[in-house]
Design a protein that fits this description.
Helix content: 25-40%
Strand content: 15-25%
Largest sheet: 6 strands, mixed
Number of strands: 9
Shape: globular
Distance between the termini: 39 Å
Structural class: alpha/beta
Bound molecules: guanosine-5'-diphosphate, magnesium ion
């Protein structure tokens, strides 16, 4: 029996719905999703395994202009994503102005691999304006397949997989078929905590935090997790902790509940806040945190 296998890399601006889409396609909550930008800092892979194919999806950070070194390193994941793809899946939404991403459109037009452009959030559009949006994209990306979808409401997503399978090369599987992702439990735990930080704190604070899982110990009835929240300025410590520790307590509870439902086991979660001055602008630190 022939077997198809390959890499489908998802690119697009922040907030257009890349992570929502990947999670729908993979069927697990692998990438954290929030309405804030830059939730997805790392490149996360998710696999769809069937007997005769394996598709490896990569969700990338949204493409942005590098303001910090962190952002520069994040953008490397994006360049990498364009390099090793068998298929590029570009996501946009009905709100995005193509004039703002001219450079990327140029880049995508130069690609030699098949490109599918998904125009997301059609649930918030009407037929007439959608038609003109699609026409416009057709002229901008003449070689791409264009498909209007709603990732959130599962509209037209069933047309994606057959297209991908048509394009993917015949290959043996790249990864063990039991494996769902290239990331381990510690990674998901830190991502869940980071998601809660994004939801709970304002302005710069979430972007200044990094979560490091120091201990992950599975006992028979409970999993014990200890994590440090690294902040880049001393003043942020008090903000994260909150008045009488109320904020961090809420953070701990919200994160614990999500982790419990993710690993389907009771969790004891301990959180500590630590200062790691200006970690976002130090190469060595970024390396340590996996950027
Ligand atoms: P990413 O930054 O590209 O990964 O975007 P996310 O997947 O994190 O989604 C950003 C926001 O758009 C979230 O609030 C999603 O719920 C929302 N969203 C995603 N897909 C759709 C859709 O089809 N329709 C609507 N109305 N909202 C969507
Ligand atoms: Mg995302």
């Amino acid at each position: 029996m022939s077997h198809k296998s390959g890499f489908v890399n998802i690119i697009g601006s922040p907030n257009v719905g890349k992570s929502t889409l990947m999670n729908q396609l993979v069927g697990e909550k692998l990438s954290i999703i929030t309405s804030k930008m830059q939730t997805t800092r790392h490149r996360i892979m998710g696999m769809v395994n069937e007997e005769d194919y394996q598709i490896v999806f990569s969700d990338t950070p949204g493409i942005i202009d590098p303001a910090y070194k962190l952002h520069e390193n994040m953008m490397k994941f994006v360049t990498e994503a364009l390099k090793d793809a068998d298929v590029v899946m570009m996501v946009t939404d009905i709100y995005e102005k193509p004039e703002k991403i001219e450079d990327r459109i140029k880049q995508v037009n130069k690609l030699e691999v098949p490109v599918i452009l998904l125009v997301n959030k059609i649930d918030q559009s009407d037929q007439k304006s959608l038609e003109s949006i699609i026409e416009n994209w057709k002229s901008l990306l003449p070689n791409a397949q264009i498909l209007p979808i709603s990732a959130l409401h599962n509209m037209s997503l069933q047309f994606i997989m057959p297209k991908l399978l048509e394009w993917l090369p015949e290959n043996p599987p790249y990864f063990d078929k039991e494996q769902l992702t290239n990331k381990n439990m510690r990674f998901f735990v830190s991502e869940i905590i980071r998601e809660k930080i994004l939801l709970l704190y304002q302005k710069e604070v979430p972007y200044s935090c990094e979560v490091v899982v120091e201990e992950y110990k599975e006992e028979e009835k409970i999993t014990r997790i200890r994590a440090n929240i690294m902040v880049s300025r001393n003043s942020q410590k008090a903000i994260v902790i909150g008045h009488q520790g109320k904020k961090i307590k809420k953070l701990g509870t919200d994160a614990r509940l999500d982790i419990e439902s993710f690993i389907m086991k009771k969790v004891h979660l301990e959180l500590y806040v630590k200062l790691d001055k200006d970690w976002r602008d130090k190469d060595q630190k970024l390396k340590k945190y996996g950027y």
